[in-house]
Structure prediction request, 84 residues.
Amino acid sequence: MITRNMRRVGLAAVLALPLLAACDDSSNTAGSSSEGVAERAGRAIDNAASNAADATGKALEKAGNAIQRESQEAQNPEPRPAQQ
Prediction:
């Protein structure tokens, strides 16, 4: 059961979040002052997706190189020294 105070807190949060998001972030010098929240969020999502794609590509490249190296070592094993 939602009490009256919980509703008020929820309503205040819902109303305050867009206002907080619309505040000008002075640390963000790349965007213009007329740039909206949606544009900044979209650019952040694009940057995150690009970084994730780069990291995934590098990880897959490393994994492929490791598989190739292991395959070559399995096909051409190094001779082991004779035991005496």
